């Protein structure tokens, strides 16, 4: 992009104004700086480097409230870095003019989407479809350059994140992965029920349509309820938790020859919502695998509770050839690992398979705290550089402090961590981060 001296200074100043903001303010600042050059109603980003919040929006709530990662993921997959794309997309219930900018400054890329402002009028000859004039090449190139700078900044922050930021990011990533997996399970259950309706030979077209509609509506209600439910602090009675499981399982076999038998827990105990939900997800995943066997005619699903554990069992009368390797998919093992549970498979050829998932209800003690939590921000900065092998003088130069101040911080770090040497402190840092 060709620029005059003053234009270059303006562009560099704009970049500086953006990246100096806190992470949560970078997108709003970028939007504000580009508002005159590129009028827009909303802006959204999908930045794959960020486990904490990869999808962000800013602007008109009428639009941002209806955008999702599903809108941006295709743009990220098909976009060409350095070549902004302009056109129209169906977004937030209407065809809208957009500018999409892709950057590969981070390992898996990042995309920035501007939903342009149509208030300025239509293009000459644009008709009634609201298509706007194309953004001129210098303006698009400036937007591309700014986005490359911002994503490079993101990549550096991700690569050099201090342990506290890493811990928050990993916690958020784990929660997001769990929610996505849970919604995926719910979708699988709904689709299996719909397939059962479509394959049924006992329903005519009208009945099939009505039944499929009921299943779809029920699935949507369940998905919305799951998305809104607070899983972190809530508890629910064991019987109620199992009843929710039963409701999600019945559509899977409603129009199949398999008879589903349910054994509700004979207990008045309550269980943590994350335990109950994990047990439901595991049972659904196992049942889906069991139903893939051709000779199964009966499946029994039950829960048993003691003061110390919940045991969920799925027992079939199939060929008895299922193995723990075939059942221990990521969605099952990941949940059991997090909750310190285990999966047992007892298969008897010719008689069937019994799968048991055991989840502890009690934790003997709280998880060990982050050993670095006692350190202040400056001490973390010193420790991060110490862990990279930097000496005191280099650390002092990098942090713009005196060498004696570095020595003071190192002494405080060793005391707070309860270690006797710089090497032990570095090893502890690497173990945590």
Automatic annotation (TrEMBL):
Pfam families: GerE. Keywords: DNA-binding, Transcription, Transcription regulation. SMART domains: HTH_LUXR. Transmembrane segments: none annotated. Residues 368-433 form the HTH luxR-type domain. This is LuxR C-terminal-related transcriptional regulator. The lineage of its organism: Bacteria, Bacillati, Actinomycetota, Actinomycetes, Kitasatosporales.
């Amino acid at each position: 992009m060709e620029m005059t001296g003053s234009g270059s200074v303006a562009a560099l100043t704009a970049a500086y104004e953006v990246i100096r903001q806190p992470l949560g303010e970078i997108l709003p600042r970028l939007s504000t700086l580009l508002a005159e050059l590129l009028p827009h109603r909303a802006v959204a980003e999908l930045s794959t480097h960020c486990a904490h919040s990869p999808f962000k929006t800013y602007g008109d709530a009428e639009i941002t409230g209806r955008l999702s990662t599903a809108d941006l993921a295709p743009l990220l997959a098909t976009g060409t870095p350095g070549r902004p794309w302009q056109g129209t997309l169906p977004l937030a219930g209407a065809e809208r003019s957009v500018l999409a900018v892709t950057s590969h400054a981070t390992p898996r890329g990042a995309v920035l989407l501007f939903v342009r402002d149509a208030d300025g009028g239509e293009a000459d000859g644009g008709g009634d479809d609201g298509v706007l004039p194309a953004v001129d090449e210098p303006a698009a190139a400036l937007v591309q350059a700014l986005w490359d700078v911002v994503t490079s900044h993101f990549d550096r922050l991700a690569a050099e994140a201090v342990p506290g930021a890493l811990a928050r990011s990993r916690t958020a990533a784990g929660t997001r992965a769990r929610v996505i997996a849970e919604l995926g399970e719910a979708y699988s259950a709904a689709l299996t029920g719909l397939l059962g309706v479509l394959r049924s030979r006992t329903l005519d077209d009208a009945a099939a349509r009505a039944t499929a509609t009921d299943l779809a509506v029920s699935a949507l209600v369940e998905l919305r309820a799951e998305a809104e439910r607070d899983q972190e602090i809530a508890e629910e009675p064991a019987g109620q938790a199992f009843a929710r499981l039963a409701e999600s399982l019945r559509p899977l076999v409603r129009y199949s020859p398999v008879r589903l038998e349910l054994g509700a827990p004979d207990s008045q105990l309550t269980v943590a919502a994350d335990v109950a939900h994990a047990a439901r997800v595991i049972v659904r995943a196992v049942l889906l695998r069991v139903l893939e066997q051709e000779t199964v005619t009966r499946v029994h699903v039950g829960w048993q509770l003691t003061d110390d554990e919940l045991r969920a069992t799925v027992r079939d009368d199939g060929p008895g050839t299922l193995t723990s390797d075939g059942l221990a998919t990521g969605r099952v093992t990941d949940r059991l690992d997090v909750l310190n549970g285990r999966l047992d498979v007892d298969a008897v050829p010719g008689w069937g398979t019994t799968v048991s998932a055991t989840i502890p209800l009690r934790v003997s003690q709280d998880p060990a705290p982050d050993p670095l939590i006692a350190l202040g921000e400056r001490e973390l900065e010193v420790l991060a550089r110490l862990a990279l092998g930097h000496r005191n003088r280099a650390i002092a130069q990098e942090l713009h402090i005196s060498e004696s101040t570095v020595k003071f911080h190192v002494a405080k770090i060793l005391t707070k961590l309860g270690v006797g040497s710089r090497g032990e402190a570095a090893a502890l840092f690497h173990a945590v981060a």
